Amino acid sequence: MEGEDSFTPNLSSPQFTTDETINLSEESSRKSQLFGGNISQGSDEISARTSEISFGRKSLDREAARSENNVDAPFNVRLSTPEKVEKGIVGSHVEYTIHVQTTLNHYKNSEFTTTRRFSDFVWLRDQLLENNPGYLIPPLPEKAIFNRFNTEFVEYRRKELERFLKRVVAHPNLSQSIDLQAFFEAERGESTLKKAVEKEKRESNDPAPSSGGKFFSFLGAAATSAPPSDPDQWFDSKRHYITSLENHFQILNKNFNNTIKKRKEALAAFSEFGVGCSLMASAEADQDSTTSNSFNAFADIITQGADLENKKMDEETNSFEESLKDYLRIIASVKELLQSRQDRLVAYQNATKNLEQKRERLEKTKGNAKLETEVTQAQEKYEETQNEFNLVSSRAKSEIQRFEAEKLRDVKAILVRFTQININYELQMADLWKILLSDL
């Protein structure tokens, strides 16, 4: 897509650093000095609990890193700073440099770099989706029509594209894909990528993969509009669960945004309170310098507190909201996988019905060579769709189980991160109030 900058979201959680973690023992010491021993016990309890949270967060960070940068994975990939390529108004796009290290012998080099644009990533995902039925294909970040070259958006997209690639190369099957190899090694351009894949297929003597997803979807839609009766209730329950999960993630995201909006409104009122304190300080300046200084100190603390609250909300949004959006994309990929299996179920059921009908006709007109040929063809189609459905079902069940296991860790990491952000900033805010109390 020329109009879209050409580079285009494990299933693991976002990577979190621990640089912001406050030295909690020092916090406890400062509290004790300022407020006296009567609160030291409570402070120590807070410190101990926060240290536990911090330790747990570090542990989760390591788990996430091992998942997204699988130590056993045959790849290590990263995307460096993007670069805008000027090609007129319509053709301008952004390209990313991809740094690749691999232990796979069929790659030309064990370490190399290449540049790709968003449409190349879209091509890769489409190929993986078409040629790897039954596997959960990681999602890409959303496309953009406006502000495509905005610095913040480009950096956000860089991180999400890197996340996409890390998920692909960490997957035991997708990492072996010839489409992935073409993406990494071919010259730039979608036509070149396609030629590279075709060349790899010829050299490996691999048959062209089935484009069954699109075919079965068309066949199913043409034959029936009602949802098929699923022979495996496990998938039926998972379909309902995933739909519910998506709805609740959407509600959570919406409510979080509403909370941020209301907190900003409250923060504006808090800042106005600080303005009132400044006015009081001015009014008392000539009459009562002590009171004036106290109100000035109060106004300063409110200003600093408002700044801290703004930073906290920004960090919460960057961490929590982006994590929610990423999981909504992952859930969409799970639904895509379930739909792919359902399309094959429809094709299998239609092939079964077609075979039964032709056999019945042949029973009524035995010796009809044309009908015998049709029955043979129907039998072949039945076996083909049956095998395809069974294969996709087996893969899909394993993939969904893997998704659920990773979700347990990922959601915990998201909540721990949110908690840590709030603890850190609340402790900083407590410091400001302590300074004010010592000055009054």
The average pLDDT value, as a whole number, equals 80
Overall strand count: 4
- What is the tally of helical segments? 11
Order of helices and strands: HHEEHEEHHHHHHHH
Beta content: 5-15%
Structural class comes to mainly alpha
Rg: 29 Å
Helix amount, in percent? over 70%
Q: How would you sum up the global shape?
A: elongated
Major pleated sheet: 4 strands, antiparallel
Low-confidence spans: pLDDT under 50, at least 5 residues? 1-50, 52-67, 206-225
Distance between the termini: 64 Å
Helix and strand arrangement:
Layout: H1 24-35, H2 40-68, E1 75-79, E2 83-85, H3 88-91, E3 93-102, E4 111-117, H4 118-131, H5 151-170, H6 178-185, H7 190-204, H8 212-223, H9 233-284, H10 289-364, H11 369-439
Antiparallel strand pairs: 1-3, 2-3, 3-4
Helix pairs in contact: 1-2, 1-11, 2-11, 6-7, 8-10, 9-10, 10-11
Describe this structure in words.
It is built from 11 helices and 4 strands, in the order H-H-E-E-H-E-E-H-H-H-H-H-H-H-H. A hairpin with an 8-residue loop joins strand 3 and strand 4. The protein has 440 residues and is mainly α. The radius of gyration is 29 Å and the shape is elongated. Helix 1 runs antiparallel to helix 2, helix 8 crosses helix 10 and helix 10 runs antiparallel to helix 11. The termini are far apart. The N terminus is likely disordered. Strands 1, 2, 3 and 4 form a 4-stranded antiparallel beta sheet that branches.
